[in-house]
Task: structure prediction
Amino acid sequence: MELHGGKMARSDSAKKADAKYKAEKTKQLVIRFYPADADILEHLQEQDSKQGYIKRLIRDDMAKVAGYTHLPGEMRNAAAAAIREAEKASSHGQEQD
Result:
């Protein structure tokens, strides 16, 4: 194999194997950011690993509601929303101190 830009060039078979694996084993999600979401997008762009950051946020959220995993989806979502609202109220109270 020849060097390309300081790295070994990948063979066609390696590229095909990688593409096959990704097609069969991974899921891809597209997120749209509207102008009103500019602050969110800016914060996300500051992260070294956008994928890692998003996964960590989701896992942290899942851990917060782990005690509610026995509930049906709708009730679990309501419990998670209640936790988020309580956290918001708590953080607003701290800002006013």
Observations:
- Residues 43 and 91 are 19 Å apart (CA to CA).
- Helices lie at 12-25, 38-45, 50-64, 73-96.
- The beta strands are 3-4, 7-8.
